[in-house]
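Team,

Forwarding the record for the chain on the shared tracking sheet. I've put the sequence and predicted structure together so nobody has to dig through attachments.
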Amino acid sequence: MKTSASGGTSASSLRFWWRGKVPWVTTPVYRTLGGDWLTLVENFGLAPYLEDKASTQPDPGAREWIASPQDLNAAAETGRDRRGVAAWFLIILCAVGGAVFLFFGGVFSSGTPTTATIIECTGHSCLGTWNINGVSQTGEIATGFSHAPSVGSPVAIRVSFGEASTAGYWLLIFAVGGVFLAFSLLVFVSTRSRTGSLVGTP
């Protein structure tokens, strides 16, 4: 039972109103006394949703406070919006991370091809020497998925911006990028399947 200020009634002068998101009407169609209105509301079982300035709600001696449908919808909408924003943030973060890994995988895999001679290996990297345009170079070689080659063995590598790597390293970077992109797609699909949209209305 809300009326707009343009209809001659201000919000501060109202005694009764509904809890939750209830639209105001420009001009009331019917008018009734406060006591009759309370009786009508009780008969329709709407008393738990009615705010009465003349009474203190919730009253310790009255029925337990019950959330109105508007309150429940508003709470659900707020929760859905927050989940939607978090989902979008995670999707974008994973997608960007995947794109970065794929970019660097492409950079390393498109480097200058040559053959390196292994000096020693530790973990997923080796020390080796190689020759590019007649210039001998010595440096670290990232091997990634590849097994550590034996000392003195030749290994096919590519050199990009002074960084040497084997095919196993490119595959590792591509795999990580693919996992990030797949996870972002999974979050996107699972979120839409539950709500119909990432940020929706009840």
